[in-house]
Amino acid sequence: MSLQRNQAFEKLMDEQWIIEVKVEGLQYPFFIRSIDINILHKGIEHNTTDKRPSILAPLDNLLWDRTLIKDLFDFEYRWEVYKPVAERIYGYYVLP
Fold first, then answer.
1. Rounded Cα–Cα distance for residues 11 and 90 (Å)
2. Alpha carbon of 70 to those of 40, 83, 94: distances in Å?
3. What span, in angstroms and rounded, lies between the C-alpha atoms of 7 and 85?
4. Which of 10, 13, 26, 83 shows its CA 20 to 30 Å from the CA of 90?
């Protein structure tokens, strides 16, 4: 499956549908749609450190790749509803 995925990414890059983006401190590349590159540059230019909290649903697709979330945000989240009581840190149902 990863061979097919990699070939698909290569094709999309060759056709200039996506651009490879490297994030400092991470070993693997990310990809962005070519039409969104200006949004990325605008976000970099307006680098703010807004510290307001945000609440995500426990099954939000942002949290699906737990390794990525740990690498990007130094945040480890597990929905504890499925963990044995003795292994829970925050409780039965906590929001990330």
1. 44
2. 21, 19, 18
3. 44
4. 26
